[in-house]
Amino acid sequence: MANYREQGIVLRTHKLGETDRILTLFTQGRGKVRAVAKGVRRPGSRFGGRLEPFSHVDLLLYEGRSLDVVTQAELLASHAEVRTDWARSAAAGVLAELVDHVGVEGDRDNHLFLLLRAGLQSLDAGPPDTGVFIDAFLLRVTAAVGFRVETTRCASCGLPGPHPFLSVVAGGTLCSDCAPSGTRAVASGVVERLDLLAGDAWSPLVALADDDTARVAASYARAFAEHHLDRRLKSYPLSERQAIA
């Protein structure tokens, strides 16, 4: 059995036996990894507090037959305040659920790892509105796996925008000729916000207002991600973001 070292972020944990814990990790080099941390729940465990959900850790593991085994763990970023604050913990839960869904065991995806790390770092800073980071993460992860929301041209015919109609199924904005009857027209501010949410920068999101435009964009981001990833996000209702029907 080979030993290997990896950086990883703990997505979730559950108990195994009386003292062990199974971890689902998303690692920088191997994608999703499931591993056992033996004795981690025992009082005085040498790395028990380092392997909590959302922790960013440097690990030494060895390959097991069904589950790998953690032998060393060095904490790089605990994100402890994310875990202890309700709004931030609920938001981080959405991030972790989404990565757990799209991540593949043994398949390196450094871009997805960096997205998760950046999302947790943004939540760690204590933003006034955690929902905006959920919205951005949903769109950015969906784009990372091949479904980028179209905001600058018609998602059907490619006609340069802006366009007032927004479709989840079509993948973004639609021109008046391509929009089916009954397609929802939205304010220009919604499309502008979606364009910013789907971008690369995180710091500008802090200044975005939490208003009706934000709630329409949030509703669309959730619907877009759930449709194109074929996944109902069980953790989303806990995030205090009230989607618009």
How would you characterize this protein structure?
- The protein has 245 residues and is α+β, with helices and mostly antiparallel strands.
- The chain has helices at 80-84, 86-102, 110-124, 131-144, 188-197, 212-229; strands spanning 3-16, 20-27, 31-37, 56-62, 68-77, 165-167, 172-174.
- The chain folds into two domains: 3-78, Nucleic acid-binding proteins (OB fold (Dihydrolipoamide Acetyltransferase, E2P)), CATH 2.40.50; 81-239, Recombination protein O, C-terminal domain (de novo design (two linked rop proteins), Up-down Bundle), CATH 1.20.1440.
- It has a five-stranded mixed barrel with strand order 1-2-3-5-4.
Number of helices: 6
Overall pLDDT: 92
Strand order, sheet with most strands: 1-2-3-5-4
What is the second-level CATH architecture of the largest domain?
Up-down Bundle
- Number of DSSP E strands: 7
Measured by DSSP, the beta-strand proportion falls in 15-25%
* Secondary-structure content class: alpha+beta
Q: Tell me the CATH topology of the largest domain.
A: de novo design (two linked rop proteins)
Total count of domains: 2
State the fourth-level CATH superfamily of the largest domain.
Recombination protein O, C-terminal domain
In angstroms, what is the radius of gyration? 20 Å
Topology (SSEs and partners):
Elements: E1 3-16, E2 20-27, E3 31-37, E4 56-62, E5 68-77, H1 80-84, H2 86-102, H3 110-124, H4 131-144, E6 165-167, E7 172-174, H5 188-197, H6 212-229
Parallel strand pairs: 3-5
Antiparallel strand pairs: 1-2, 1-4, 2-3, 4-5, 6-7
Helix pairs in contact: 2-3, 2-4, 3-4, 4-6, 5-6
